[in-house]
Fold these 3 entries.
Entry 1:
Amino acid sequence: MVAEGRQRIDKWLFFSRAVKSRSLAAKLVVAGRVRINRDKAAQASDMVRPGDVLTITLERRIFIWKVLGTGTRRGPAEEARTLYEDISPPPAPKSEAIPDAIPALREAGSGRPTKKQRRETDRLLGED
C-alpha cells in the first residue's frame, strides 16, 4: 500500500538516474550514503515525497537534491531531471581544490642509494 505522492527511496533513486539499478540504490541506502531531510535513510523502503531534501554521496561527490515529484518509470535523462532540483554547491575550481595526494618532501640524496653509490659503498667496505 503506497500513500499518494510518496515513493520508496530506492525506486526514486533509480527513476531519477542517480544509480543504474534498484539493487544498487538499495545498497547505497543501506550503506548510509543517503540522507532524507538530514536523517540517514535506514532502509530501501523509506519513503520520499515532494519537498524532501536528499543528500546523496557518490564517489567523491555529494549531491543535494530537492525532490519535486515521484516517478512512474525510468525514462530518458530529461524526464529524470524533472523529478529533482539540484541545490548542490558548485564544485571548487581545480586551482583551489586540495590535491588528493600531497607529494612527499625529502632532502636530496636521502632516499635509496643509486647503483653508483652502492658500488662505492661496497668498495669502501671491501665487498668487491
Note: The chain has a mean pLDDT of 88.
Entry 2:
Amino acid sequence: MKQLFLTNRFFLLFGAVIALFVVSFPLGMLFPIAQTILVLGLILVVADILLLFNDSVKIKCRRRLPKVFSLGDDNNVELELENESTQNLKLSVIDELPIEFQKRDFEIDLDLKAKEEKKIRYQLRPLRRGEYTFGKINVFMESFLGLVQRRHQHDFPMTVPVYPSIIQMKHYELKAFDRVSHNQGIKKIRRLGHSYEFEQIKNYVKGDDYRSINWKASSRRGTLMVNQYEDERAQQVYSIIDKSRAMKMPFKGLSLMDYAINTSLVISSIVLRKHDKAGLLTFSDKIGATIKADRKANQLNMIMTALYKEKERNLEANYELLYHSARKLIKGRSLLLLYTNFESTYALERVLPILRRINNLHLVVVVFFKNTEIEEYAKQAVTNSEEIYHQTIAQKYISEKTQMVHKLRQYGIQSILTDPEELSVNTINKYLELKSRGLI
C-alpha cells in the first residue's frame, strides 16, 4: 500500500459522485444513479490497481552522469527509462537531486509505450564546489485509466564532484588557438617587437611589421617577404587568488572567488598549451595552495585539484605575507595574475606600496571587478530627490573604480577592471597582449 497513490482523476471522479449524492437528497430520483456511478468507480479503481500491481509491469531505470560537474555551467544529466511490460504507461519521474540545488518541484512527465525505451536529458548548474550526492529515482506509473499511481523506487545513489569549470576551459582553449575563424571575445593581437625565435619567411600581408621585411628574400622572389617569429617559451605565469572576505561577494550565484578559480583554470590551460609554465598561489590571512610554475604532464591536474579544495576565508588579506611568500616561491621574473577586489580607493592605497614592491620583481596584473548591480542602478531613471542622491553615490563609486585603474597605471602596474562574467575573456586577452609585446 505504500507504493499506491491516488491521482487527480480519482478525486475528480469521486468528488463528482459525492456531489451527486448531495444533490440526490432533494431529488430522490438521482440517488440510484449516484449509487451506480459509485459502484462503477470502485470497479474501475480495483481494475486499475490490478493493471498496475502485477509482476508483468516493470520499469527499468538508470541515471548517467559526467565524471565531474563544471562549476557555474549547465551540466547534462541523462535518465534512461525502459518499459518492460506489455501495456502503455504514463510516467512521472522525480529524481532526488542533491540538496545543494534546492529544487523541490523537479518532475518530468512522459508517455512510454510497451517495450519502449526513452532517454531524458536535463541540466543542472552547480554554484558551489564539492561533492554532490544524488538519491533515489522515483517513477510514478499510470495505466490508461489514470485513477491510481504505482510508485517504483530505484535506489540509485551517485556522487559527483563539482570542479572548476572544465567546460569553460575547453571552450576558451578552442577560441584562443583557432587561427581561422574570428571568435567573439578573444582578440587576435599582432606581435610587436622581435624578442622571439625565428620560425619562417612568409609573404608580406597588410598589417605585418615592416621592420620584419627580409630584403634579400624579397629581391629573390620579386615580392615583399617578412620574417615570422614564434613566441618565446617556458615563461612563468602564476595565478594568485585572494580568498579573503572581499572575494565572497556573489554575482549570479557565484562568488568572485569562484569566478577567479574558473578563470585560473582556463588561463593555466592556455599557458601550458602556449608552452609556458603555469603556477598557482592562494592567500588570505595565511598562505593556501602553492604550486610552482612548471609545464610537466600532470601540472594542469595538480592546479585543478588545488583549486577544487580552496575555500573563502572571513578575514582580511595579508599582502605583506603575499610579498614574502612570492619572493620565496617564485624564482625569476614571472607574470603574476592577481585576482582580488577593491571596493574603495582607500583599500587600494593600503596595499599599493606592496604591489609596487612585487611589481619591481615581476610583471603584476591586478584583476579586480566591477559591481554590475551598482552600474545598472546608476543607469536607471530617477523620479525624486532621494533617488538622485542614491544614484550620485553609485556614480561616484563607479568613478572610484576607474580612478583605481589610473592609479595602478601611474605606478607601472598592469590592471584589468572587468565584469565577473567577462573575467576569462579579458584575462586571456591581457595574457596574449603581454606575450605579443614581449613583456614576458
Note: Residues 78 and 121 are 5 Å apart (CA to CA).
Entry 3:
Amino acid sequence: MIKTFHLLFILLSIISFVGRVILSETYPSLLQKKVVNIAPHIINTLLIISGVALIFQGGWLSISYGWIIAKIVALLIYIGLGIITLKQRGTNRWLAFIGAMACLVYIGIVAVTKNAFFFL
C-alpha cells in the first residue's frame, strides 16, 4: 500500500515539476497562485515521507543498501537542478531541466535494479 502511494506521489511530483516549467514559459502569472506554489511542496513532502516509510518497511537501513544513498544524492541534485530550472531563463534553464530529468531517470532505474552502478 505504501509503495502504491509512493509511486502516485512520484507521478504527481513529476507532473507538478514539468507543469510548472511549462507554466513559466507560457503563463508565468499563474505561478503566483497560492495553490501552484503550495501543492508541489505538499506532494514532495508526502513523497519523501512515503519513501522513508518504505525504507523502514523494507529494512533497508543498513549501509549494505548503498543504492538508497545513491537515490538520496540524486534526489538532492534533482532538487538543486529543479530550483535552477524554475529560477533561470534561457539555456541555463533548459540544461538544468535536462539534468533534472536525467536525475529522475537515474533514480527510477536504481529503484528498479537496486544497483547504483547499473551502467558499469
Note: The two ends are 33 Å apart (CA to CA).
